[in-house]
């Protein structure tokens, strides 16, 4: 299997999850990890599985405004203009049978906090013609800038192993 993991990350938490997913998927074939601002420059090979993830901002996928705000909270170099939302909105439809999965990171407390970048990503992937191999998955951070909640890296690896064996389904958009 040839897989590509595309991610958007502000504080390193989503990047850590993306790399954990890629690490687990590498047991099943070649995996490429690409930050979203660079993804448009990569040709779109026929990947066996596309995994896309980003942080939850203001109850959904980030926007230029929310990325600009995040940039004021870190010294990291953040791509302000291009996020998962813009990248997927500019993407072309894919052939039938194309497989994908969506993940996101979000603040885990309070537990009732709504919103999910994973669900927004999954909707966009479906609109492009991808069959989801699993329901969108959220991984938890302990605060706006992190760190990841204990056990989330291991949970991401387990989720990735399930993805490798999944086939396109009509996986529900909610948990």
What does this structure look like?
- The structure is a single chain.
- The protein has 175 residues and is an alpha/beta fold.
- The protein has one domain (2-165): Rossmann fold.
- 33% of the residues lie in helices and 20% in strands.
- The protein is built from 6 helices and 6 strands.
- It has helices at residues 13-25, 36-39, 64-71, 84-90, 117-127, 152-165, and strands at 2-7, 30-35, 49-55, 99-107, 131-132, 137-141.
- Strands 1, 2, 3, 4, 5 and 6 form a 6-stranded parallel β-sheet that branches.
- Helix 1 (13-25) packs across helix 6 and helix 4 packs parallel to helix 5 (117-127).
- It is globular.
- Mean pLDDT is 87; it is low at 170-175.
Topology readout:
Elements: E1 2-7, H1 13-25, E2 30-35, H2 36-39, E3 49-55, H3 64-71, H4 84-90, E4 99-107, H5 117-127, E5 131-132, E6 137-141, H6 152-165
Parallel strand pairs: 1-2, 1-3, 3-4, 4-5, 4-6
Helix pairs in contact: 1-6, 4-5
Task: Name some characteristics of this structure.
6 strands; 175 residues; Flavodoxin-like domain-containing protein; globular; alpha/beta; 20% strand; Rossmann fold; 6-stranded parallel β-sheet; Flavoprotein-like_sf
